[in-house]
Design goal:
single chain; about 280 residues; alpha/beta; Rossmann fold; Elongation Factor Tu (Ef-tu), domain 3; six-stranded antiparallel beta barrel
């Protein structure tokens, strides 16, 4: 377990974080402008296009839907209206883009640019394969969406529980943390070389470990020293782990169900699927 602790700041009145409005989303055609490996299992891809000048940067854990071309596809076919999902479902299967969700690592509307971090696991799935092989000039579609992080008024401390797939979201939440709100961050990554890149903030305690996805995050939450009031939890990553952490927080820690957001980004017991 590696620990990074920032000094606590003086107590101030916490500002409630407003619940985000949903965006009227549509698919934007963009091109890859840069690709770099930020760690052995994380690839950062930058895409750019005129359509990104018009999107809203909401911060926190804002996510996008990547629409990836199918192998051998001469030109990526994208939906053309805000009813993008029904449009995609109506496409022939061999023309329908591959859909995967990712958290925004950075969005620069003034430059029409978007960064996304993708965790790779070989060529066993279409998104990992794309991250390993994409090059500048490649075409991809993006649907910029909204956020899920919405702590209630009165939140004084935030618990973030994340595996490698949820590190970008945790980074966004920490970057937007209101003054006077503390945070405990528990992270699991594949190897020590995949150390999470998270903002350093006053009152934030970051603890991470390199481990095979499994029970380590739940065990760390069970052992964590957390406030008994004013606590909001955001949990994301492997589905069974996220569910187990949420169950512990509600049943054993007494958090209300509305005080815990949890999301299974992937399942360890399911093979990477082709679609």
């Amino acid at each position: 377990m590696t620990t990074t602790t920032a000094p606590a700041s003086a107590a101030t009145t916490a500002r409630p974080v407003p619940r985000r409005q949903r965006l009227a989303a549509h698919a934007v055609r963009v091109r890859v402008t840069a690709r770099r490996e930020v760690s052995p299992h994380v690839v950062r891809v930058t895409v750019a296009g005129e359509g990104l000048h018009d999107v809203s940067a909401l911060g926190d854990d804002q996510y996008v839907r990547l629409l990836l071309p199918r192998p051998g596809q001469a030109r990526l076919r994208l939906p053309e209206t805000e009813r993008w999902w029904p449009e995609m479902q109506a496409m022939p299967a061999d023309e329908r883009p591959v859909l995967r969700n990712y958290t925004v690592r950075a969005l620069r509307p003034e430059a029409g640019e978007l960064d996304v971090d993708l965790v790779t696991h070989g060529e066993s799935g279409p998104a990992s394969r794309w991250a390993l092989t994409t090059r500048p000039g490649d075409e991809v579609g993006v649907v910029v969406q909204d956020t899920c992080y919405a702590p209630p008024a009165g939140t004084r401390h935030v618990l973030l529980v994340a595996d490698a797939t949820a590190v970008p979201a945790a980074a966004g939440i920490l970057a937007g943390l209101p003054e006077g709100v503390g945070a405990s961050v528990l992270v699991e990554v594949p190897t020590a070389d995949d150390a999470p890149d998270l903002p350093e903030r006053d009152g934030v305690d970051v603890r991470w470990r390199a481990a095979t996805p499994g029970r380590s995050l739940l065990d760390d939450v069970v052992r964590a020293d957390l406030p008994t009031t004013g606590l909001y939890a955001w949990v994301a990553g492997e589905a069974a782990t996220a569910t187990g952490v949420r169950r512990h927080l509600v049943r054993e820690r007494g958090l209300g169900k509305d005080d815990v957001y949890f999301c299974g980004y992937w399942r360890s017991d399911a093979p990477a699927y082709e679609d």
